[in-house]
Design a protein that fits this description.
265 residues, alpha/beta, Rossmann fold, 2 domains, 7-stranded parallel beta sheet
Length: 265
């Protein structure tokens, strides 16, 4: 029996072509689930699909371009997944990234973009897939969120505010969907290796530092007790726990995956 009892189930991953999303797709396939994943970048999506099929030649896998901020696009993705694999038991909302800005330099447009991204990248997929989830036993929604939801940073004011709103939304959905037997949880990540951090590394001033040295110094400067950045697979493992029946009595909760960065009990 698989460590994560998802054999024969159908799982959905948004933002699944790289980083934490891609790590989730890999773990779900290892757990025996059929997986439909989406992303906006078609080239990255095709590359991920090809690599996954090489690694999992018997996988039940669907990769479809989808803009999670476009309700019609999300509905089309939900219909394609339903036709290919049947109703979804698991929905993992992973799309979105951070915006670096202070209150003083965040424009009205930037506020609107950030709030729209953080909320509707969850609202549209939940709306589209909830009727499917309601048809399944042990149904689960997992939202990838940030420690900023509880521990805001002044240089990421818009993202921090939006992340706090998403944390609240998870709890609200958990209460509302509990009678439907659909659990809703999230994870709060700290600094996790990603394309965003790679781009910052490429733009670094200290050219003598390699990736390991640069990230180690970053971890020290950020006062991360485990003294390193997290790995996408480490976040994905927490997500898989919340997505599986192993967490059947857990809803409205968040798992801290921040290497000890959290200053909250």
């Amino acid at each position: 029996m698989s460590l994560y009892p998802l054999q024969g189930s159908t799982a959905i991953v948004t933002g699944g072509s790289s980083g934490i999303g891609l790590a989730c797709v890999e773990l779900l396939l290892e757990a025996g689930a059929a997986v439909a994943f989406c992303g906006r970048n078609e080239q990255r999506l095709r590359n991920a699909d090809r690599q996954l099929r090489e690694r999992f030649p018997k996988a039940r896998l669907l990769a479809q371009p989808c803009d999670v901020l476009d309700a019609a696009s999300v509905k089309s993705f939900a219909a394609a997944s339903l036709e290919a694999f049947g109703p979804a038991q698991v929905l993992i909302n992973n799309a979105g990234q951070g915006r670096v800005s202070t209150f003083a330099d965040t424009t009205d447009e930037a506020w609107s973009e950030e709030l729209n991204l953080k909320f509707f990248s969850v609202i549209y997929p939940v709306r589209a897939f909830l009727p499917q989830l309601e048809r399944c036993a042990n149904a689960a929604i997992v939202c990838v969120n940030s420690l900023l939801a509880s521990q805001p940073e002044p240089h990421m004011v818009a993202t921090s505010a939006a992340r706090a709103g998403l944390k609240n939304l998870v709890r609200s959905m958990a209460f509302e969907f509990a009678p439907k037997q659909v659990r809703v949880n999230g994870i709060l990540i700290g600094l996790v290796e990603s394309g965003q951090w790679r781009r910052r590394f490429e733009a670094r001033a200290e050219r003598e530092l390699d990736w390991a040295q640069w990230t180690a110094r970053l971890a020290v400067n950020k006062q991360i007790p485990l003294a390193r950045l997290g790995l996408p697979i480490e976040a994905a493992q927490a997500i898989l726990f919340l997505a599986s029946p192993l967490s059947a009595y857990t809803t409205g909760s968040h798992i801290d995956v921040s290497g000890g960065l959290s200053r909250h009990a």
